[in-house]
Each structure stands twice: as C-alpha cells, then as structure tokens.
Write a structure and sequence with these properties.
The structure holds two protein chains of two kinds. Chain A is α/β, with parallel strands linked by helices. Chain A has helices at 2-7, 9-21, 59-69, 81-87, 101-107, 111-120, 203-220, and strands spanning 24-32, 43-48, 78-79, 122-146, 149-170, 175-196. Chain B has one domain (35-200): Rossmann fold. Helices cover 40% and strands 35% of the residues of chain B. A five-stranded mixed beta sheet of chain B has the order 5-2-6-7-8. A three-stranded mixed beta sheet of chain B has the order 1-4-3. Classes of the chains: A alpha/beta, B alpha/beta.
C-alpha cells in the first residue's frame, strides 16, 4: 500500500486537484405561469438580452442552450439566434426588441413580423439574460526565462458565478408562460510547478446544460 | 553571419515600428435588409467626402495616436442596403444639381457629427462601446430644407480573451451601425418635419 502511494503520488495529487476543480454547484429555479406543449412542426427561438449597459448575454451561451435543447430525448427544433434576428431586422435589435409580452403583441400586428414568425414556425421565444462573473481572485504566479530554460511557480485561484434567467413567451397566446433561473458557482485553481496546470470549474457549461434540460422539459410540458 | 545579423536587425526595427505605430481599423461587416413598408418616393442620396472618408482617431492617455478607425465605406454599404428597402427609388448623386436634373422627390444627406469609443482599459468595464451622432438632412429636389434631425447610434460588445482589440472595435461598430439602420428606418416617417412633408405629397 505504501509502495502504491509512493509511486502514484503525482497521479493522486492530480486526481485530488481535478476533483476539487470539478466542484460546481448549480441551482435551478422554475416558475410556471401557464400550460406549455410543442408540436413537431413548431420551433423555439432563444434570444439573448442585450439592453444592460455594463454586460450583455453572450451569443455563445445562447447557442450552447439551443444545442442542449436540440439534443437527446424529445429534441426541440431551435431557430439560430442570428438567423432569426437578421430575418426580423430591424424589429429584434437591442433597442427595438420587445421587452414585455405587450410589446410583442404590438409587434405581431406588423404583417412582416407575423409572417416571418409563421415561416420559422416559432411557438416559443426564450429570452436569456445574465452573465458569468469572476470574483475572489487570490494567489500569485511568477514566470521566469533564463539561458537554461524557464518555468512558472505559484498558485492562483478564483471563483466563477454564472447567473442566468430564461423567460418563456408563448407566441400563440402572446403571454409569459414561465421563468427559469439558474445560478452556478465554482472554484477554479491554477497551480504552477514549472508549467501552469489550469483546473477550471466548468461553471458556465454546467449552467448551460442544466438550463437546457430544464427548458426542454418546460417547453414539452413535462 | 552578416546576412543573419541584417535579418535580426530588420526584425528588431520592424518590431519597434509596430509597437509605436497607430493601429488601423477598417470597419467591415454585412447588414441585413430591413423588413419595413416602402415609401412611394424617389430619393437621391448625397454622400459627402466627410462621410465617405470618415475616420476617427483614438488617442492614448499619453496623447499618442492609438487607433485609427475608418468607417466611411461601411456607412455607405449600410445606407446602400437600408435606403432601397425604405424608398421605391434610390439613386446616388454627386451634387444637388445632378439630383435636380433627375427630378427626384427628395435629396437625403447623412453626416457624421461625432464618434466616440470607450475601451475596457479606460472604462474598467468588460465591454467595448461605440457612440455615433449623425445629422440627417432631407431636402427637396431644389435643395430647399425639409428636415434636419439628429440621430444617435450605440453599439457594444463584450471583451473576450482570445479576441484582438481591433476585432472587438469592429464588432462594436457593426452593432452601432445596425442600431443606426434600425432607428433610422423605423423613425424616418415619424420625424415631425418629414411627417408634415409626407402629408403634403
């Protein structure tokens, strides 16, 4: 046993660090306001909110949630965000996009908008709003290069907090049918012994996959 | 040996020049056609050299030229996409006299009045921002005043670790140009003077 521990010391240390790095806590909160369900010929469009002055919902996160909803059991047809916004131009730009279902109702009176919505077969619009924040940075790493080679030494760590909420609008009834919030936090580490080894908490990826699963179930009415 | 020294010297000089020079950013992008109802008007568009050759220079905190942002051509591309979707007929003219000879309903002349850039290094926010202030002018075929109004556009893009500053400035500018296109196309007939003029037709 002693021999095993001695020979695999590095492997055990790495395993411990990886298990520490994968410590991500995700909380999902669902608030349902109406009945949902979707037919095979209907689709969902996921749009990022970009009205805030100091942040904007990243297009990559929106795409990640869409891909998650389009995978696995009972996949849902997703209209790509940019394709939808371009086709609807100029009605879904940051300054002109509807903020409330009342605005959507007004927008649907525009023949061009309702016609495009029918062409895409959009049953639900999901508005994603949020961002990932990095806090509690600590530690330091210093790197040096000399004639004989180079290397880095030190240790750094930080916490990531991904906070997103998804509002689901039913295009058929022009109502808000529910809101799903997700909050994922995780600690990342960067030990450096000659080379830096990043042990990253997949906070945003976890928030994305959990939100996608929850949204899929929500839209399917289960 | 001498050849190798020369190569190293050239590389060092090139690096030195690159580090000191201004970074040129030419705004490039594509714009979708607006889905709006066309107005039954034949409009001549006059692009002045102040618009076609528009460039904004951002200075560093030490006062040296940091970024030279050329957005004139991207504005022409934007108006070339937006205006045909707004009016029945659009023709680009070089002068008011040319527009008079063509017998158009109105002459439109966009002018950039102000351009502002906010970099994350200066604002300490994780976004690149661009503000543009325009003066839109609408004249009769004879060059008489119809309307003259101010329009502002805004674009921002989040800072990303693997994206260059130039690419981020370009992305923010494209958002600002799309914002211009959306507000201009949706608000044109709501400008009081334009509305009054349209009612007289």
């Amino acid at each position: 046993m002693k021999n095993f521990l001695r020979t695999n010391r590095l492997g055990i240390a790495l395993l411990l660090l990886v298990s520490l790095a994968s410590c991500t806590t995700t909380t999902i909160d669902e608030f349902r306001q109406g009945e949902t369900g979707i037919e095979n010929n209907e689709s969902v469009v996921i749009l990022g909110r970009r009205q805030a002055s100091d942040y904007e919902t990243r297009a990559e996160f929106v795409e990640c949630v869409g891909e998650g909803m389009n995978r696995g059991e009972n996949p849902i047809s997703i209209v790509p965000e940019q394709e939808f916004i371009d086709a609807m131009f100029p009605w879904f730009e940051p300054r002109t996009a509807p903020l409330r279902t009342r605005d959507l109702e007004r927008l649907m009176t525009e023949a061009v908008v309702s016609q495009k919505m029918t062409e895409f077969g959009v049953r639900y619009i999901v508005w994603l709003d949020g961002f990932t924040e990095t806090t509690d940075r600590s530690g330091s790493i210093s790197c040096a290069v000399g004639p004989g080679g180079g290397g880095c030494f030190g240790f750094g760590s930080w916490e990531d907090d991904a906070n997103f909420n998804a509002r689901v609008w039913d295009v058929g009834s022009l109502t808000n049918v529910g809101t799903i919030s997700t909050d994922a936090t995780g600690q990342s580490y960067l030990p450096a012994f000659i080379i830096p080894i990043p042990l990253l908490a997949r906070v945003e990826a976890n928030a994305c996959s959990r939100l996608a699963i929850q949204l899929k179930d929500f839209v399917n009415g289960s | 040996m001498r050849g190798r020294m020369r190569t190293v010297l050239i590389l060092v000089i090139a690096l030195y020049l690159t580090a000191c020079g201004v970074n040129n950013v030419v705004i490039e992008g594509s714009f979708p056609t607006p889905n709006i109802n066309k107005l039954p008007l034949n409009v001549a568009v006059l692009y002045g050299s102040a618009l076609t050759e528009f460039a904004y220079i951002e200075y560093s905190e030490t006062g040296s030229e940091e970024y030279n942002i050329a957005s004139g051509q991207s504005h022409i591309e934007l108006f070339s996409t937006v205006l045909p979707a707004m009016f029945d007929g659009v023709v680009v003219v070089e002068s008011i006299a040319e527009a008079q000879a063509l017998g158009v309903d109105a002459i439109f002349e966009p002018i950039i009045e102000e351009f502002q850039l906010a970099l994350p290094t200066k604002t300490k926010l994780d976004v690149y921002e661009i503000w543009i202030k325009y003066n839109m002018r609408l004249m009769t075929a004879d060059g008489d005043y119809i309307a003259d109004w101010v329009l502002t556009s805004y674009g921002k893009t989040p800072s990303e670790s693997l994206r260059s500053v130039e690419a981020a400035i370009n992305a923010a500018a494209i958002v600002a140009l799309r914002d211009l296109a959306s507000s201009f196309s949706l608000s044109f007939s709501k400008v009081p003077e334009v509305k009054d003029w349209l009612n007289t037709l």
